[in-house]
Amino acid sequence: MNSPTKITVIGLGYLGATHAAAMAEMGFEVLGLDIVPEKTEELARGRSPIYEPGLEDLLRRHVAGLPDSTGRLSFTTSWADLAAFGDVHFICVNTPQRAGEYACDMSYVEAAVESLAPHLDRPALVVGKSTVPVGSAARLTRRLVELAPAGEAAELAWNPEFLREGYAVEDTLRPDRIVAGCPSERAETLLREVYARPIAAGSPFLVTDLPTAELVKSAANAFLSTKISFINAMAEICEAADGDVVMLAEALGHDDRIGKKFLQAGIGFGGGCLPKDIRAFMARAGELGVADAVSFLREIDSINMRRRGAMVELTKETLGGTLLGKRVAVLGAAFKPDSDDVRDSPALNIAGQLHLQGAQVTVFDPKANENARRVFPTLRYAGTAIEAAEHADAVLHLTPWRAFRELDPEAVGEVVAERRILDGRNTLDPELWRKAGWTYRALGRPTA
Ligand code: UGA
């Protein structure tokens, strides 16, 4: 049965498109808005503008006007239609890093509130999902009440999103926790209704004040970044002391208090979230007069960025000290597997650095070639891993797609100029490659 509560989703990127489709899957009537008409048009045809496993299936099941769909999901570019339609409005726009600064750019969130509020003439709940600096929700609440004809009957809650790209559908339908910064009982009741399905299935529902809800997200991403940079710092030590960071991580992970997850050493973290979120967190802490509390994040950031340089150096060393004129195949361009997202991608960044230092770089990514080409049109792009590897003096494995782990070292060996494989993600099997006559090198691992 359809729920009487109607939902809108503002901003239809990785977060919003998935959230809108998942809300329709949970039985709600949903209207999604994006200021880019091409995006809403594509979604209205049941096609996803981004690659996210499972998302197109959900769209096909629910987008209005498609054969056999529930018709629960529609799209618009009109703020008036959005306000007239919805009881609960989710803000899912992005908050990128500001050019030349650590702080995040709040202009899209602010524009969303300013555009929606003047149309809110009956009680409504606006729910922020975007990652924002602590204190934003309080400020946006004042703006909302000021601009909305409904006045204080227009409320603002904060409900941060913890989805991982590549698992966005799964994480949205079955979140590991729901954090709801609620200004009132009414807001809490509405959010419990919206999330009734995952709550019934066991997702913990944590009610907090607004600043705590905002902070949970910044703290979670700071912790995850710290975990990755910790193991990458250990990789640096392993390199100096001839240790093996993969064995080290495995041994650490058996301690329940540490755990195995997010201890994968390699070229480090990237994407549209972790790097900019730790910087925005530092900037906000500075504004609050507590910069020292998170100054360690500066070190986390620099350990992470050093890994990219280390991979370039390892490639240079493997190729005899110079990259000039050397042919390098780069497997992977997305910042992580099962995604076509190349924002701050370590793989693409390394490919670019190699190119700038004179190497002839050919990149292959199963889903991100097109996005990568837009950022780095000067690199060459191949249609398959084997094609990228043709005549290569070295093959670099930089995004850990499953398909790369399944490559046959013998088959790749037949097309390269030299059998040299550099594993930037420590997910290939060194034995397998060495047995096929390859020189296998990786960050934080012994050379032989
Ligand atoms: C991250 C968080 O994991 C989500 O919980 C959060 O909701 C999201 O940011 C967000 O703020 O929206 P995501 O950016 O999709 O999710 O990617 P992650 O899975 O966290 O991976 C980030 C980067 O770290 C990738 O480049 C990945 O390759 C790298 N990584 C991850 C490692 O280098 N080692 C690891 O052990 C794990």
The number of distinct β-strands equals 14
Which ligands are bound?
uridine-5'-diphosphate-glucuronic acid
- Summed over residues and divided by their number, the pLDDT gives a mean of 97
Structural class: alpha/beta
* CATH class label of the largest domain: Alpha Beta
**Helical percentage:** 40-55%
What does the radius of gyration come to? 24 Å
Total domain count: 2
Would you identify the regions where 5 or more consecutive residues have pLDDT less than 50?
A: none
Biggest sheet overview? 6 strands, parallel
Q: What CATH architecture of the largest domain do you see? A: 3-Layer(aba) Sandwich
Secondary structure topology:
Blueprint: E1 6-10, H1 14-25, E2 29-33, H2 37-44, H3 55-62, E3 73-76, H4 79-85, E4 88-91, H5 107-116, E5 124-128, H6 136-147, E6 154-158, H7 168-173, E7 178-181, H8 185-194, H9 196-200, E8 205-208, H10 210-241, H11 245-253, H12 274-287, H13 296-318, E9 327-331, H14 346-356, E10 360-364, H15 369-375, E11 380-381, H16 385-389, E12 394-397, H17 402-405, H18 409-415, E13 420-423, H19 430-435, E14 439-442
Parallel strand pairs: 1-2, 1-4, 2-3, 4-5, 5-6, 7-8, 9-10, 9-12, 10-11, 12-13, 13-14
Helix pairs in contact: 1-3, 10-12, 10-13, 13-14
The protein binds uridine-5'-diphosphate-glucuronic acid (UGA).
Uridine-5'-diphosphate-glucuronic acid binds next to α10 and α12.
